[in-house]
Write a structure and sequence with these properties.
The complex is a heterodimer of chains A (about 350) and B (about 230).
Chain A (H helix, E strand, L loop, with lengths): L1 H7 L23 H48 L10 H11 L7 H16 L12 H12 L1 H4 L16 H8 L3 H7 L2 H9 L11 H13 L6 H20 L7 H6 L3 H8 L10 H21 L6 H18 L24
Helix pairs in contact in A: 2-3, 2-4, 2-10, 3-4, 3-5, 4-5, 5-15, 7-8, 10-13, 11-13, 11-14, 14-15
Chain B lengths: L2 H6 L15 H7 L3 H25 L8 H23 L2 H7 L10 H11 L4 H31 L1 E2 L2 E2 L13 H25 L30
Antiparallel strand pairs in B: 1-2
The chains are: A mainly alpha (about 350), B mainly alpha (about 230).
Protein backbone atom coordinates (compact mmCIF):
# COMPACT_ATOMS: atom_id res chain seq x y z
CA UNK A 1 0.00 0.00 0.00
CA UNK A 2 2.68 2.44 1.00
CA UNK A 3 4.73 1.55 -2.09
CA UNK A 4 1.79 2.38 -4.33
CA UNK A 5 1.46 5.80 -2.80
CA UNK A 6 5.13 6.42 -3.21
CA UNK A 7 4.94 5.59 -6.91
CA UNK A 8 2.19 8.13 -7.42
CA UNK A 9 3.94 10.97 -5.65
CA UNK A 10 4.12 14.03 -7.89
CA UNK A 11 7.62 15.33 -8.42
CA UNK A 12 7.56 19.08 -7.98
CA UNK A 13 10.04 21.19 -9.94
CA UNK A 14 12.87 22.93 -8.16
CA UNK A 15 11.70 25.92 -6.20
CA UNK A 16 12.33 29.08 -8.18
CA UNK A 17 12.51 27.33 -11.54
CA UNK A 18 8.89 28.24 -12.30
CA UNK A 19 7.35 31.68 -12.41
CA UNK A 20 4.17 31.61 -10.36
CA UNK A 21 1.65 34.37 -10.96
CA UNK A 22 -2.06 34.95 -11.04
CA UNK A 23 -3.94 35.57 -14.27
CA UNK A 24 -3.88 37.39 -16.65
CA UNK A 25 -0.80 35.72 -18.05
CA UNK A 26 -0.80 37.35 -21.45
CA UNK A 27 -0.62 41.12 -21.39
CA UNK A 28 -0.58 43.70 -24.11
CA UNK A 29 0.00 47.42 -23.88
CA UNK A 30 -3.57 48.29 -22.90
CA UNK A 31 -4.20 49.99 -19.60
CA UNK A 32 -7.32 51.44 -18.04
CA UNK A 33 -6.28 54.97 -18.87
CA UNK A 34 -5.59 54.08 -22.53
CA UNK A 35 -8.96 52.36 -22.89
CA UNK A 36 -10.75 55.26 -21.25
CA UNK A 37 -8.95 57.75 -23.49
CA UNK A 38 -10.11 55.75 -26.50
CA UNK A 39 -13.68 55.86 -25.18
CA UNK A 40 -13.34 59.62 -24.72
CA UNK A 41 -12.17 59.97 -28.32
CA UNK A 42 -15.19 57.94 -29.43
CA UNK A 43 -17.44 60.20 -27.38
CA UNK A 44 -16.08 63.26 -29.20
CA UNK A 45 -18.57 63.20 -32.12
CA UNK A 46 -21.49 63.12 -29.69
CA UNK A 47 -19.91 65.88 -27.60
CA UNK A 48 -19.35 68.05 -30.66
CA UNK A 49 -22.91 67.41 -31.85
CA UNK A 50 -24.30 68.35 -28.44
CA UNK A 51 -22.33 71.60 -28.43
CA UNK A 52 -23.42 72.28 -32.01
CA UNK A 53 -27.10 71.84 -31.17
CA UNK A 54 -27.31 73.18 -27.64
CA UNK A 55 -24.43 75.67 -27.67
CA UNK A 56 -23.52 77.12 -24.28
CA UNK A 57 -25.93 74.89 -22.33
CA UNK A 58 -24.11 71.78 -23.52
CA UNK A 59 -20.68 73.21 -22.68
CA UNK A 60 -21.90 74.18 -19.23
CA UNK A 61 -23.36 70.74 -18.44
CA UNK A 62 -20.33 68.88 -19.83
CA UNK A 63 -17.93 70.96 -17.76
CA UNK A 64 -20.00 70.66 -14.59
CA UNK A 65 -20.49 66.89 -14.87
CA UNK A 66 -16.89 66.19 -15.84
CA UNK A 67 -15.52 68.37 -13.07
CA UNK A 68 -17.87 67.11 -10.36
CA UNK A 69 -17.24 63.46 -11.31
CA UNK A 70 -13.48 63.85 -11.22
CA UNK A 71 -13.69 65.80 -8.00
CA UNK A 72 -15.95 63.16 -6.39
CA UNK A 73 -13.51 60.41 -7.37
CA UNK A 74 -10.57 62.40 -6.02
CA UNK A 75 -12.36 63.24 -2.77
CA UNK A 76 -13.31 59.59 -2.27
CA UNK A 77 -9.70 58.50 -2.87
CA UNK A 78 -8.60 60.99 -0.21
CA UNK A 79 -11.32 59.91 2.20
CA UNK A 80 -10.41 56.23 2.10
CA UNK A 81 -6.68 56.97 1.89
CA UNK A 82 -6.16 55.35 -1.49
CA UNK A 83 -3.85 56.44 -4.25
CA UNK A 84 -5.97 58.84 -6.34
CA UNK A 85 -7.45 57.02 -9.34
CA UNK A 86 -8.41 60.15 -11.24
CA UNK A 87 -5.55 59.46 -13.68
CA UNK A 88 -7.33 56.49 -15.25
CA UNK A 89 -9.97 58.85 -16.72
CA UNK A 90 -12.82 56.49 -15.84
CA UNK A 91 -14.49 59.18 -13.73
CA UNK A 92 -14.20 61.63 -16.61
CA UNK A 93 -15.84 59.12 -18.99
CA UNK A 94 -18.68 58.58 -16.53
CA UNK A 95 -19.11 62.34 -16.15
CA UNK A 96 -19.21 62.95 -19.90
CA UNK A 97 -21.69 60.13 -20.54
CA UNK A 98 -23.87 61.39 -17.69
CA UNK A 99 -23.72 64.93 -19.10
CA UNK A 100 -24.83 63.66 -22.50
CA UNK A 101 -27.84 62.16 -20.72
CA UNK A 102 -29.00 65.36 -19.06
CA UNK A 103 -31.51 67.83 -20.46
CA UNK A 104 -30.13 71.18 -21.71
CA UNK A 105 -31.83 73.08 -18.90
CA UNK A 106 -30.14 71.08 -16.12
CA UNK A 107 -29.00 73.39 -13.30
CA UNK A 108 -25.55 73.02 -11.74
CA UNK A 109 -26.78 71.23 -8.62
CA UNK A 110 -28.49 68.58 -10.75
CA UNK A 111 -25.14 67.88 -12.42
CA UNK A 112 -23.51 67.76 -9.00
CA UNK A 113 -26.02 65.34 -7.45
CA UNK A 114 -25.89 63.14 -10.55
CA UNK A 115 -22.09 63.02 -10.70
CA UNK A 116 -21.67 62.38 -6.98
CA UNK A 117 -24.36 59.70 -7.07
CA UNK A 118 -22.76 58.02 -10.09
CA UNK A 119 -19.23 58.03 -8.71
CA UNK A 120 -19.73 57.52 -4.98
CA UNK A 121 -22.97 55.58 -4.56
CA UNK A 122 -23.03 53.53 -7.75
CA UNK A 123 -19.31 52.97 -8.29
CA UNK A 124 -17.12 53.50 -5.22
CA UNK A 125 -19.43 52.08 -2.56
CA UNK A 126 -19.48 48.80 -4.47
CA UNK A 127 -15.70 48.68 -4.49
CA UNK A 128 -14.62 51.04 -7.26
CA UNK A 129 -13.92 50.57 -10.92
CA UNK A 130 -14.58 47.01 -12.06
CA UNK A 131 -16.75 46.10 -9.09
CA UNK A 132 -19.92 48.09 -9.79
CA UNK A 133 -22.93 45.98 -10.77
CA UNK A 134 -24.68 48.91 -12.47
CA UNK A 135 -23.51 51.32 -15.12
CA UNK A 136 -22.80 54.52 -13.14
CA UNK A 137 -24.13 56.94 -15.74
CA UNK A 138 -27.32 54.96 -16.38
CA UNK A 139 -28.03 54.46 -12.68
CA UNK A 140 -27.39 58.14 -11.94
CA UNK A 141 -29.73 59.16 -14.73
CA UNK A 142 -32.42 56.86 -13.30
CA UNK A 143 -31.89 58.32 -9.80
CA UNK A 144 -32.19 61.86 -11.13
CA UNK A 145 -35.21 61.05 -13.25
CA UNK A 146 -37.03 59.47 -10.32
CA UNK A 147 -35.76 62.02 -7.82
CA UNK A 148 -36.00 65.30 -9.71
CA UNK A 149 -38.74 64.70 -12.25
CA UNK A 150 -39.25 68.45 -12.73
CA UNK A 151 -35.77 69.70 -13.67
CA UNK A 152 -35.01 66.47 -15.53
CA UNK A 153 -37.82 67.13 -18.01
CA UNK A 154 -37.12 70.80 -18.68
CA UNK A 155 -36.43 70.43 -22.36
CA UNK A 156 -35.08 73.18 -24.55
CA UNK A 157 -35.34 73.51 -28.29
CA UNK A 158 -31.96 73.04 -29.99
CA UNK A 159 -29.90 76.05 -31.08
CA UNK A 160 -32.30 78.72 -29.80
CA UNK A 161 -32.12 77.37 -26.24
CA UNK A 162 -35.68 78.43 -25.62
CA UNK A 163 -37.21 76.42 -22.79
CA UNK A 164 -40.16 74.35 -23.91
CA UNK A 165 -42.03 71.48 -22.38
CA UNK A 166 -42.91 68.22 -24.05
CA UNK A 167 -40.71 69.00 -27.03
CA UNK A 168 -38.84 65.72 -27.19
CA UNK A 169 -39.67 63.25 -29.93
CA UNK A 170 -40.78 60.68 -27.34
CA UNK A 171 -42.85 63.28 -25.50
CA UNK A 172 -44.56 63.92 -28.83
CA UNK A 173 -45.27 60.21 -29.12
CA UNK A 174 -46.88 60.26 -25.69
CA UNK A 175 -49.12 63.15 -26.81
CA UNK A 176 -49.99 61.52 -30.11
CA UNK A 177 -51.09 58.25 -28.54
CA UNK A 178 -54.46 57.08 -29.76
CA UNK A 179 -54.37 58.96 -33.04
CA UNK A 180 -53.25 57.11 -36.16
CA UNK A 181 -52.76 60.33 -38.18
CA UNK A 182 -50.57 61.99 -35.53
CA UNK A 183 -48.38 58.88 -35.41
CA UNK A 184 -48.08 58.91 -39.21
CA UNK A 185 -46.92 62.56 -39.11
CA UNK A 186 -44.27 61.65 -36.53
CA UNK A 187 -42.99 58.88 -38.79
CA UNK A 188 -42.66 61.13 -41.86
CA UNK A 189 -39.28 61.20 -43.69
CA UNK A 190 -38.52 64.84 -42.71
CA UNK A 191 -39.06 63.96 -39.07
CA UNK A 192 -36.86 60.90 -39.32
CA UNK A 193 -34.12 62.94 -40.99
CA UNK A 194 -34.20 65.49 -38.16
CA UNK A 195 -34.00 62.63 -35.66
CA UNK A 196 -31.04 61.07 -37.48
CA UNK A 197 -29.11 64.35 -37.61
CA UNK A 198 -30.17 65.40 -34.12
CA UNK A 199 -31.94 68.71 -34.67
CA UNK A 200 -34.63 67.84 -32.11
CA UNK A 201 -35.23 68.37 -28.41
CA UNK A 202 -33.92 65.91 -25.85
CA UNK A 203 -30.96 65.19 -23.61
CA UNK A 204 -27.95 67.07 -24.94
CA UNK A 205 -26.01 64.09 -26.23
CA UNK A 206 -28.68 61.66 -27.33
CA UNK A 207 -30.34 63.69 -30.06
CA UNK A 208 -27.91 63.04 -32.89
CA UNK A 209 -27.99 59.40 -33.95
CA UNK A 210 -25.38 60.12 -36.63
CA UNK A 211 -22.75 61.43 -34.19
CA UNK A 212 -23.24 58.51 -31.83
CA UNK A 213 -23.05 56.02 -34.71
CA UNK A 214 -19.68 57.51 -35.70
CA UNK A 215 -18.47 57.17 -32.11
CA UNK A 216 -19.90 53.68 -31.83
CA UNK A 217 -18.12 52.68 -35.04
CA UNK A 218 -14.92 53.96 -33.42
CA UNK A 219 -15.56 51.82 -30.34
CA UNK A 220 -16.04 48.77 -32.54
CA UNK A 221 -12.85 49.53 -34.46
CA UNK A 222 -10.90 49.88 -31.21
CA UNK A 223 -12.48 46.55 -30.18
CA UNK A 224 -13.64 48.06 -26.93
CA UNK A 225 -17.20 46.79 -27.08
CA UNK A 226 -18.94 43.61 -28.15
CA UNK A 227 -20.84 44.21 -31.37
CA UNK A 228 -23.47 41.75 -30.19
CA UNK A 229 -24.88 44.08 -27.54
CA UNK A 230 -25.78 47.14 -29.67
CA UNK A 231 -26.83 44.94 -32.57
CA UNK A 232 -29.14 42.80 -30.45
CA UNK A 233 -30.56 45.83 -28.66
CA UNK A 234 -31.29 47.86 -31.79
CA UNK A 235 -32.57 44.84 -33.73
CA UNK A 236 -34.89 43.86 -30.90
CA UNK A 237 -36.30 47.36 -30.63
CA UNK A 238 -36.75 47.43 -34.41
CA UNK A 239 -38.59 44.11 -34.54
CA UNK A 240 -40.64 44.61 -31.36
CA UNK A 241 -41.81 48.14 -32.12
CA UNK A 242 -42.32 47.16 -35.78
CA UNK A 243 -44.69 44.37 -34.80
CA UNK A 244 -46.59 46.64 -32.40
CA UNK A 245 -46.73 49.37 -35.05
CA UNK A 246 -48.17 46.98 -37.63
CA UNK A 247 -50.70 45.62 -35.18
CA UNK A 248 -51.77 48.95 -33.68
CA UNK A 249 -50.58 52.00 -35.68
CA UNK A 250 -52.30 54.37 -33.27
CA UNK A 251 -50.23 53.13 -30.34
CA UNK A 252 -46.70 53.77 -31.53
CA UNK A 253 -44.77 55.24 -34.48
CA UNK A 254 -42.72 53.06 -36.79
CA UNK A 255 -39.62 51.11 -35.76
CA UNK A 256 -37.15 53.55 -37.35
CA UNK A 257 -38.57 56.36 -35.24
CA UNK A 258 -38.01 54.28 -32.10
CA UNK A 259 -34.41 53.50 -32.97
CA UNK A 260 -33.47 57.08 -33.79
CA UNK A 261 -35.25 58.79 -30.91
CA UNK A 262 -34.37 59.08 -27.24
CA UNK A 263 -31.42 57.32 -25.69
CA UNK A 264 -31.41 54.15 -27.79
CA UNK A 265 -28.23 54.96 -29.70
CA UNK A 266 -26.17 56.30 -26.80
CA UNK A 267 -27.53 53.54 -24.58
CA UNK A 268 -26.72 50.82 -27.09
CA UNK A 269 -23.17 51.96 -27.83
CA UNK A 270 -21.94 53.68 -24.69
CA UNK A 271 -23.98 52.58 -21.66
CA UNK A 272 -25.10 48.98 -22.23
CA UNK A 273 -21.65 48.00 -23.49
CA UNK A 274 -19.80 49.06 -20.33
CA UNK A 275 -17.21 46.29 -19.92
CA UNK A 276 -17.84 45.98 -16.20
CA UNK A 277 -21.60 45.65 -16.31
CA UNK A 278 -22.18 43.60 -19.45
CA UNK A 279 -22.03 39.79 -19.87
CA UNK A 280 -18.72 38.11 -20.61
CA UNK A 281 -19.64 35.91 -23.55
CA UNK A 282 -20.91 36.71 -27.05
CA UNK A 283 -24.11 34.75 -26.52
CA UNK A 284 -24.60 36.56 -23.23
CA UNK A 285 -24.22 39.86 -25.08
CA UNK A 286 -26.99 38.90 -27.48
CA UNK A 287 -29.32 37.92 -24.63
CA UNK A 288 -28.43 41.08 -22.71
CA UNK A 289 -29.03 43.38 -25.69
CA UNK A 290 -32.32 41.70 -26.56
CA UNK A 291 -33.47 42.02 -22.95
CA UNK A 292 -32.75 45.75 -22.93
CA UNK A 293 -34.55 46.13 -26.25
CA UNK A 294 -37.70 44.38 -25.08
CA UNK A 295 -37.77 46.30 -21.77
CA UNK A 296 -37.24 49.62 -23.55
CA UNK A 297 -40.11 48.98 -25.94
CA UNK A 298 -42.43 47.85 -23.16
CA UNK A 299 -41.69 50.94 -21.05
CA UNK A 300 -41.99 53.28 -24.04
CA UNK A 301 -45.21 51.87 -25.45
CA UNK A 302 -47.13 50.89 -22.32
CA UNK A 303 -45.28 52.60 -19.48
CA UNK A 304 -45.86 55.89 -17.73
CA UNK A 305 -42.46 57.28 -18.76
CA UNK A 306 -41.95 58.30 -22.39
CA UNK A 307 -38.37 56.91 -22.34
CA UNK A 308 -37.09 53.67 -20.86
CA UNK A 309 -33.54 53.04 -22.08
CA UNK A 310 -31.77 53.92 -18.85
CA UNK A 311 -34.28 51.96 -16.76
CA UNK A 312 -33.84 48.94 -19.01
CA UNK A 313 -30.06 49.13 -18.87
CA UNK A 314 -30.09 49.23 -15.07
CA UNK A 315 -32.57 46.34 -14.85
CA UNK A 316 -30.57 44.28 -17.34
CA UNK A 317 -27.35 45.09 -15.47
CA UNK A 318 -28.88 43.49 -12.40
CA UNK A 319 -29.50 40.32 -14.41
CA UNK A 320 -25.97 40.08 -15.84
CA UNK A 321 -24.75 37.49 -13.28
CA UNK A 322 -27.69 35.25 -14.23
CA UNK A 323 -27.02 35.74 -17.95
CA UNK A 324 -23.37 34.91 -17.37
CA UNK A 325 -24.38 31.77 -15.55
CA UNK A 326 -26.65 30.60 -18.34
CA UNK A 327 -24.42 31.64 -21.23
CA UNK A 328 -21.11 30.32 -20.03
CA UNK A 329 -18.65 28.99 -22.58
CA UNK A 330 -19.21 25.26 -22.94
CA UNK A 331 -15.90 23.43 -22.67
CA UNK A 332 -14.84 21.12 -25.50
CA UNK A 333 -16.74 17.86 -25.26
CA UNK A 334 -19.60 19.37 -23.31
CA UNK A 335 -22.97 17.79 -23.89
CA UNK A 336 -26.33 18.64 -22.42
CA UNK A 337 -26.63 15.03 -21.24
CA UNK A 338 -23.49 15.44 -19.18
CA UNK A 339 -24.57 18.70 -17.55
CA UNK A 340 -25.58 18.05 -14.01
CA UNK A 341 -26.88 20.38 -11.39
CA UNK A 342 -23.84 19.69 -9.27
CA UNK A 343 -21.31 20.44 -11.99
CA UNK A 344 -19.49 23.70 -11.35
CA UNK A 345 -19.84 26.00 -14.31
CA UNK A 346 -17.65 28.80 -15.45
CA UNK A 347 -18.63 32.08 -13.90
CA UNK A 348 -20.44 30.37 -11.08
CA UNK A 349 -19.78 31.02 -7.46
CA UNK A 350 -19.87 27.98 -5.23
CA UNK B 1 -26.80 42.51 33.59
CA UNK B 2 -28.55 45.35 35.32
CA UNK B 3 -32.02 46.49 34.29
CA UNK B 4 -30.66 49.80 33.07
CA UNK B 5 -28.23 48.02 30.77
CA UNK B 6 -31.02 45.82 29.40
CA UNK B 7 -32.93 49.01 28.68
CA UNK B 8 -30.13 50.99 27.02
CA UNK B 9 -28.71 48.22 24.83
CA UNK B 10 -31.63 48.67 22.42
CA UNK B 11 -30.51 52.17 21.52
CA UNK B 12 -27.06 51.46 20.23
CA UNK B 13 -25.29 48.22 21.10
CA UNK B 14 -28.06 45.87 19.98
CA UNK B 15 -30.25 48.31 18.10
CA UNK B 16 -32.94 46.25 16.33
CA UNK B 17 -32.53 48.06 13.00
CA UNK B 18 -28.89 49.07 12.92
CA UNK B 19 -27.24 46.07 14.55
CA UNK B 20 -29.69 43.19 14.46
CA UNK B 21 -31.05 44.38 11.07
CA UNK B 22 -34.52 43.11 11.90
CA UNK B 23 -37.87 44.55 10.87
CA UNK B 24 -36.63 46.02 7.60
CA UNK B 25 -40.07 46.11 5.99
CA UNK B 26 -41.70 48.61 8.38
CA UNK B 27 -38.40 50.49 8.67
CA UNK B 28 -38.23 51.21 4.97
CA UNK B 29 -41.95 51.58 4.39
CA UNK B 30 -42.88 53.90 7.23
CA UNK B 31 -39.79 56.06 7.56
CA UNK B 32 -40.59 58.21 4.54
CA UNK B 33 -41.60 60.98 6.92
CA UNK B 34 -40.92 61.67 10.57
CA UNK B 35 -44.50 61.59 11.86
CA UNK B 36 -45.16 58.20 10.30
CA UNK B 37 -41.89 56.88 11.69
CA UNK B 38 -42.71 58.12 15.18
CA UNK B 39 -46.22 56.62 15.14
CA UNK B 40 -44.96 53.30 13.82
CA UNK B 41 -42.14 53.23 16.36
CA UNK B 42 -44.42 53.92 19.30
CA UNK B 43 -46.96 51.33 18.18
CA UNK B 44 -44.18 48.76 17.86
CA UNK B 45 -42.83 49.75 21.27
CA UNK B 46 -46.23 49.08 22.81
CA UNK B 47 -46.45 45.66 21.16
CA UNK B 48 -42.88 44.78 22.15
CA UNK B 49 -43.40 45.79 25.76
CA UNK B 50 -46.70 43.94 26.05
CA UNK B 51 -45.60 40.77 24.29
CA UNK B 52 -42.30 40.62 26.17
CA UNK B 53 -44.13 40.95 29.49
CA UNK B 54 -46.70 38.27 28.76
CA UNK B 55 -44.24 35.87 27.16
CA UNK B 56 -41.82 36.11 30.07
CA UNK B 57 -44.72 35.30 32.40
CA UNK B 58 -45.91 32.26 30.41
CA UNK B 59 -42.46 31.07 29.35
CA UNK B 60 -42.45 28.12 31.72
CA UNK B 61 -45.99 27.03 30.82
CA UNK B 62 -45.46 26.87 27.06
CA UNK B 63 -44.09 23.61 25.63
CA UNK B 64 -40.94 24.18 23.58
CA UNK B 65 -42.27 22.64 20.38
CA UNK B 66 -45.25 24.93 20.00
CA UNK B 67 -43.74 28.05 21.51
CA UNK B 68 -43.62 30.02 18.27
CA UNK B 69 -47.38 29.71 17.57
CA UNK B 70 -48.06 30.65 21.21
CA UNK B 71 -45.83 33.72 20.94
CA UNK B 72 -47.50 34.72 17.69
CA UNK B 73 -50.92 34.55 19.33
CA UNK B 74 -49.72 36.81 22.16
CA UNK B 75 -48.13 39.24 19.69
CA UNK B 76 -51.21 39.26 17.47
CA UNK B 77 -53.35 40.12 20.47
CA UNK B 78 -51.27 43.16 21.25
CA UNK B 79 -51.18 44.18 17.59
CA UNK B 80 -54.97 44.06 17.52
CA UNK B 81 -55.10 46.14 20.67
CA UNK B 82 -52.76 48.79 19.32
CA UNK B 83 -54.56 48.87 15.98
CA UNK B 84 -57.95 49.43 17.57
CA UNK B 85 -56.48 52.02 19.98
CA UNK B 86 -54.91 53.96 17.13
CA UNK B 87 -58.05 53.75 15.06
CA UNK B 88 -59.96 55.29 17.95
CA UNK B 89 -57.55 57.85 19.35
CA UNK B 90 -54.68 58.59 16.92
CA UNK B 91 -55.09 61.32 14.27
CA UNK B 92 -56.97 59.88 11.33
CA UNK B 93 -54.28 60.93 8.84
CA UNK B 94 -51.56 59.07 10.75
CA UNK B 95 -53.69 55.95 11.10
CA UNK B 96 -54.44 55.95 7.40
CA UNK B 97 -50.86 56.67 6.38
CA UNK B 98 -49.65 53.62 8.32
CA UNK B 99 -52.35 51.51 6.69
CA UNK B 100 -51.40 47.87 6.26
CA UNK B 101 -48.14 48.30 8.17
CA UNK B 102 -49.99 48.57 11.47
CA UNK B 103 -51.43 45.02 11.40
CA UNK B 104 -48.12 43.89 9.92
CA UNK B 105 -46.37 44.64 13.23
CA UNK B 106 -47.54 41.13 14.04
CA UNK B 107 -44.97 39.70 11.64
CA UNK B 108 -42.23 42.18 12.52
CA UNK B 109 -39.10 40.13 13.13
CA UNK B 110 -38.04 42.39 15.98
CA UNK B 111 -41.07 41.45 18.07
CA UNK B 112 -40.81 37.70 17.55
CA UNK B 113 -37.03 37.93 17.71
CA UNK B 114 -37.09 39.54 21.16
CA UNK B 115 -39.71 37.05 22.36
CA UNK B 116 -37.60 34.14 21.18
CA UNK B 117 -34.18 35.49 22.08
CA UNK B 118 -34.88 37.29 25.31
CA UNK B 119 -38.34 37.07 26.90
CA UNK B 120 -38.50 33.28 26.65
CA UNK B 121 -35.42 32.92 28.87
CA UNK B 122 -35.56 35.97 31.15
CA UNK B 123 -37.65 37.27 34.01
CA UNK B 124 -40.47 39.76 34.00
CA UNK B 125 -38.60 43.00 34.79
CA UNK B 126 -35.65 42.26 32.54
CA UNK B 127 -38.02 41.40 29.67
CA UNK B 128 -39.97 44.61 30.18
CA UNK B 129 -36.77 46.67 30.17
CA UNK B 130 -35.58 44.84 27.06
CA UNK B 131 -38.89 45.33 25.23
CA UNK B 132 -39.10 49.01 26.12
CA UNK B 133 -35.46 49.65 25.18
CA UNK B 134 -35.70 47.77 21.89
CA UNK B 135 -38.95 49.53 21.02
CA UNK B 136 -37.58 52.97 21.79
CA UNK B 137 -34.40 52.16 19.87
CA UNK B 138 -36.54 51.17 16.91
CA UNK B 139 -38.53 54.40 17.26
CA UNK B 140 -35.32 56.40 17.48
CA UNK B 141 -33.98 54.97 14.20
CA UNK B 142 -37.31 55.37 12.44
CA UNK B 143 -37.59 59.00 13.48
CA UNK B 144 -33.99 59.74 12.44
CA UNK B 145 -34.49 58.06 9.06
CA UNK B 146 -37.85 59.76 8.72
CA UNK B 147 -36.40 63.20 9.44
CA UNK B 148 -33.61 62.85 6.87
CA UNK B 149 -35.84 61.32 4.21
CA UNK B 150 -38.63 63.83 4.76
CA UNK B 151 -36.21 66.74 4.67
CA UNK B 152 -34.48 65.57 1.50
CA UNK B 153 -37.64 64.60 -0.34
CA UNK B 154 -40.02 67.37 0.68
CA UNK B 155 -38.02 69.97 2.60
CA UNK B 156 -40.15 69.58 5.72
CA UNK B 157 -39.64 68.24 9.24
CA UNK B 158 -42.65 66.72 11.03
CA UNK B 159 -44.75 68.36 8.34
CA UNK B 160 -43.36 71.87 8.98
CA UNK B 161 -41.66 73.52 6.02
CA UNK B 162 -38.00 74.39 6.57
CA UNK B 163 -37.96 77.09 3.85
CA UNK B 164 -34.54 76.18 2.49
CA UNK B 165 -35.00 73.40 -0.02
CA UNK B 166 -37.49 73.69 -2.83
CA UNK B 167 -36.42 71.00 -5.30
CA UNK B 168 -37.15 67.86 -3.32
CA UNK B 169 -35.10 64.75 -4.12
CA UNK B 170 -38.21 62.60 -4.49
CA UNK B 171 -36.13 59.42 -4.67
CA UNK B 172 -35.46 59.73 -0.94
CA UNK B 173 -39.17 59.54 -0.14
CA UNK B 174 -39.47 56.24 -1.98
CA UNK B 175 -38.24 52.76 -1.11
CA UNK B 176 -34.88 52.94 -3.00
CA UNK B 177 -33.96 56.11 -1.12
CA UNK B 178 -34.72 54.33 2.15
CA UNK B 179 -32.49 51.40 1.19
CA UNK B 180 -29.64 53.68 0.12
CA UNK B 181 -29.84 55.82 3.26
CA UNK B 182 -30.08 52.82 5.57
CA UNK B 183 -27.11 51.24 3.81
CA UNK B 184 -25.09 54.41 4.28
CA UNK B 185 -26.04 54.58 7.97
CA UNK B 186 -25.11 50.91 8.50
CA UNK B 187 -21.79 51.48 6.78
CA UNK B 188 -21.16 54.56 8.90
CA UNK B 189 -22.00 52.66 12.06
CA UNK B 190 -19.66 49.79 11.19
CA UNK B 191 -16.96 52.33 10.40
CA UNK B 192 -17.43 53.98 13.78
CA UNK B 193 -17.38 50.66 15.62
CA UNK B 194 -14.26 49.59 13.73
CA UNK B 195 -12.60 52.87 14.59
CA UNK B 196 -13.51 52.47 18.25
CA UNK B 197 -12.25 48.89 18.32
CA UNK B 198 -9.01 49.92 16.65
CA UNK B 199 -8.44 52.57 19.27
CA UNK B 200 -8.96 50.00 21.97
CA UNK B 201 -6.53 47.68 20.18
CA UNK B 202 -9.19 45.09 19.23
CA UNK B 203 -10.58 43.75 15.99
CA UNK B 204 -14.23 44.63 15.41
CA UNK B 205 -16.62 41.80 14.69
CA UNK B 206 -20.39 42.02 14.69
CA UNK B 207 -21.94 40.16 17.64
CA UNK B 208 -21.90 36.52 16.55
CA UNK B 209 -25.05 35.39 18.33
CA UNK B 210 -27.26 37.52 16.11
CA UNK B 211 -26.33 36.24 12.68
CA UNK B 212 -28.16 33.61 10.72
CA UNK B 213 -26.05 30.66 11.87
CA UNK B 214 -27.02 31.22 15.47
CA UNK B 215 -30.74 31.71 14.94
CA UNK B 216 -32.79 28.70 15.91
CA UNK B 217 -36.00 29.56 14.08
CA UNK B 218 -35.14 27.61 10.93
CA UNK B 219 -34.25 24.52 12.92
CA UNK B 220 -37.64 24.29 14.64
CA UNK B 221 -38.94 21.44 12.52
CA UNK B 222 -35.92 19.23 13.05
CA UNK B 223 -34.73 19.82 16.56
CA UNK B 224 -35.69 21.51 19.74
CA UNK B 225 -33.27 24.03 21.26
CA UNK B 226 -31.76 22.81 24.49
CA UNK B 227 -32.62 25.97 26.40
CA UNK B 228 -36.39 25.62 26.52
CA UNK B 229 -36.50 22.07 27.94
Amino acid sequence: MSEEIEKKTVVLPEPGSLVLSTSPHVQDGDSISKIMLKVLVCLLPAVIASIWFFRFNAVRILVYCGAFSVFAEYAWSLAIRRKPTVGDFSALVTGVILALNLPPGAPWWLCMVGSVFAIIVVKELFGGLGQNPFNPAAAARVALLVGFAGPMTQWAAPVTGELVSGATPLGAVQLAKGSKEAMAILGSPENLKALFLGNVGGSIGETSALAILIGGFGLLCFRLIKWQIPLAMIATIFVFSGIVHLAAPELTPGPVYHILSGGVMIGAFFMATDMVTSPMTALGGLVFGALIGVLTCVIRIWGAYPEGVSFSIVIANALVPLIDRLCYIRPFGWHSHSASALQIRRGEIK
Amino acid sequence: MSLFKEFTKGFWKENPVLVLVLGMCPTLATSSDAVKGLAMGLATTFVLLGSNLVISVIRKLVPGKIRIPCYIVVIATFVTVVKLLMQAYAPQAVYQALGIFLPLIGVNCTVLGRAEAFASTNGLLASAADGLGMGLGFTFVLVCLGCVREFLSAGTLFGVSMQCWDNGFALMGQAPGGFILLGLILAGMNLLNMHKAKKAGLKYEPPAEFDCRHCSICKLSTEEPAKTK
